[in-house]
């Protein structure tokens, strides 16, 4: 048990952890909107403890003058109007302050539950590690000056997104473990059949995560605009310039053609893998909840691929691009639920099930 102090405590702690996970989900979506609207470099002066936004027209003019000295304004947004600057500024400000709000929303209940003795040492260490990882999020995503067009480094963007996904998955898995200490297992047959699914579900879950992270390199390199055709990339299946960068490894992370091709291959492999899992599971005697999760995962994978193709063909509009990223996290959510539901029950539960079936 991860939570003590009576039957009511797990419910309260679970609600708090799931609420924190939902907040992280919204952070990822808001971060996607910030990236797609190119708002990430709009704030030129930001303290680690936070900053007040401009509160008067004079302060807005001062802030705009600072932005006019930035490489992004000089090379990309020269001639931008004040109204447009306010929009990208508020987008980035909202993203940063939403993250600080998450820190408060997480820390205060955490302190309360620790004080009440609800949280065991094991759970406390796990949550502390997730909190520390979240606190470090603000140190990632700074601008790099080596690019012709100023932008956040794709490596930093990928690290930022990977960290957010890790925090989200950690919170979601922990919350599920708090409210559901044992997986749904009411017979030995269901336990044994779930073990067969687990051999496929775990690597597929990792593939879903890798595919989502590859999307960060697509966004970071603006690779979504490299080829807006499908299934071919332009007039060919494989572009001629996919190995044009030296050293060779840079092609996989910085070459826009290769980055988009990699993402297409990973997305296709993800869909086929989940489809194979769904087909294999139809021949197994599984708990109804597990079967429903597999079906939902299959449906979400198909919708996400369809949404990704629509986003590409539409030249990556903000609405579709945001929905595509939210879909990636939703698919990962379903894989977390599935893997948590098919984990091995405790030895005591397995023994009781075997005794009941004898």
From TrEMBL:
It holds the Pfam family COX15-CtaA. GO terms for cellular component: mitochondrial inner membrane. The chain crosses the membrane at residues 12-33, 97-114, 160-179, 200-220, 301-318. One of its GO terms (molecular function) is oxidoreductase activity, acting on NAD(P)H, heme protein as acceptor. Its main location: membrane. One of its GO terms (biological process) is heme A biosynthetic process. It is a multi-pass membrane protein. Pathway: Porphyrin-containing compound metabolism; heme A biosynthesis; heme A from heme O: step 1/1. It catalyses: Fe(II)-heme o + 2 A + H2O = Fe(II)-heme a + 2 AH2. The keyword Transport does not apply. Keywords: Heme biosynthesis, Iron, Membrane, Metal-binding, Oxidoreductase, Transmembrane, Transmembrane helix. It is found in: Membrane. Its cofactor is heme b. PANTHER family: CYTOCHROME C OXIDASE ASSEMBLY PROTEIN COX15 (PTHR23289), CYTOCHROME C OXIDASE ASSEMBLY PROTEIN COX15 HOMOLOG (PTHR23289:SF2). This is Cytochrome c oxidase assembly protein COX15. It comes from Aquilegia coerulea (Rocky mountain columbine).
């Amino acid at each position: 048990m991860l939570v003590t102090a009576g039957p009511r405590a797990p419910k309260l702690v679970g609600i708090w952890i799931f609420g924190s996970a939902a907040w992280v989900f919204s952070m990822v979506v808001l971060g996607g909107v910030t990236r797609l609207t190119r708002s990430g470099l709009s704030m030129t002066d930001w303290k680690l403890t936070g900053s007040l936004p401009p509160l008067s027209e004079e302060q807005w003019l001062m802030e705009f003058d600072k932005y006019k000295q930035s490489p992004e304004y000089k090379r990309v947004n020269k001639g931008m109007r004040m109204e447009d600057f306010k929009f990208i500024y508020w987008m980035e400000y909202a993203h940063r302050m939403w993250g600080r709000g998450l820190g408060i929303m997480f820390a205060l209940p955490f302190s309360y539950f620790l004080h009440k003795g609800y949280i065991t040492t094991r759970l406390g260490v796990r949550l502390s590690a997730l909190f520390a990882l979240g606190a470090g999020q603000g140190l990632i995503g700074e601008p790099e000056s080596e690019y012709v067009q100023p932008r956040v480094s794709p490596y930093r963007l990928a690290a930022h997104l990977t960290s957010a996904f890790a925090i989200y998955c950690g919170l979601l898995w922990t919350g599920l473990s708090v409210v559901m200490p044992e997986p749904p297992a009411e017979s030995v047959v269901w336990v044994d059949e779930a073990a067969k699914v687990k051999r496929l579900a775990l690597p597929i879950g990792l593939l879903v995560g890798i595919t989502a992270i590859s999307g960060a390199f697509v966004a970071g390199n603006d690779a979504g605009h490299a080829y807006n055709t499908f299934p071919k990339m332009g007039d060919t299946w494989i572009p001629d310039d996919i190995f044009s960068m030296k050293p060779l490894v840079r092609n996989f992370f910085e070459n826009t053609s290769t980055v988009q091709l990699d993402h297409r291959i990973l997305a296709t492999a993800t869909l086929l893998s989940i489809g194979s899992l769904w087909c294999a599971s139809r021949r197994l005697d599984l708990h109804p909840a597990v079967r429903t999760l597999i079906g939902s995962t299959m449906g979400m994978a198909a919708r996400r691929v369809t949404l990704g193709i629509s986003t590409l063909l539409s030249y990556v509009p903000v609405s579709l691009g945001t929905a595509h990223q939210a879909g990636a996290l939703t698919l990962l959510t379903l894989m977390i639920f599935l893997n948590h539901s098919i984990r091995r029950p405790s030895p005591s539960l397995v023994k009781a099930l075997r005794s009941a079936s004898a």
